[in-house]
Amino acid sequence: ARIPTCTSSYTESPRDRYEPSASAQGRYDASQVSTPRALQPFATIGGAFLATSEVVGGMGVMFGRIVSRLVRLSFDRSELLRNLYKMGVKSLPIVVVTALFTGGIMVIQAAPLVERYGAHGLLGWGAGFGTLREIGPLLTALMISGRVGANNTAELGTMVVTEQIDALRALAIDPIGFLIVPRFIGIVTTLFLSTVFADALALFGAAYAGRGILGVEPMVFFNGLTSGLLGLGDVFHGLIKSVVFGMVIALASCQFGIATSGGAPGVGRAVNSTVVVSAAGIFVLDYIVSFAIG
Hints:
The chain is mostly helical. Helix content is about 75%, strand content about 0%. It is built from 9 helices and no strands. The protein has helices at about 40-70, 75-85, 90-115, 125-160, 165-170, 175-215, 220-225, 230-260, 265-294. Helix 3 (about 90-115) runs antiparallel to helix 4 (about 125-160). The longest helix has about 40 residues, at about 175-215.
């Protein structure tokens, strides 16, 4: 078996241990507390708020620990390369399929208006604007969340319930530097590069869908795309979103994975929580980022 490399000066402190709680797994039950019937709705709302706060706080603490290892470059490089291959290269098929059909869908939605007003020269701009700024990063993030984020949580959760994380600590190996940081970098990098790839494929698919549906030649499509209505700012808009989405997916999957408890059923609950929190976080931050950078 390969011996990890980041074993040098790790001494476990109480802050480095995750003690999972019911609310961290999204299982807070307000009925466990004796509450008058009239106040039960408020207790339920308060319980949901506390559970959400604990999840967000746990992700914040996780991010702080990841940053501290990144600053010191205290993470396993071979584990990072392995995760980049597993998360990035093996995700290419689903990214290709999603991107090509996304481009085609954009043309199908625009076809009635293009035909009505004869705006064939603006087809490239219409498809490119929506794809580069919104649809490309968003759908790619949801695909990566479902494939990579859920798998990451399942791996970490299984390591927790089978006491492999405790074994790493017993060997003086930092679980954050050895397991979490490479996965964090891998997910963020994978989503960023996948978004670049998906944008290009979506525009390619849109160009040839326009030729098949509307009779718009690809050259006309790409002329509309590069005529000045779209700029690098639109491309960077989507790429900034991809980095933010990648951080949310990475933090959620690592947090719920490392906080797993309750054996095999606990792993299933952790995976479910990861998918839900990642999707919700993607849409919330999509709104915030869109509002912030225009």
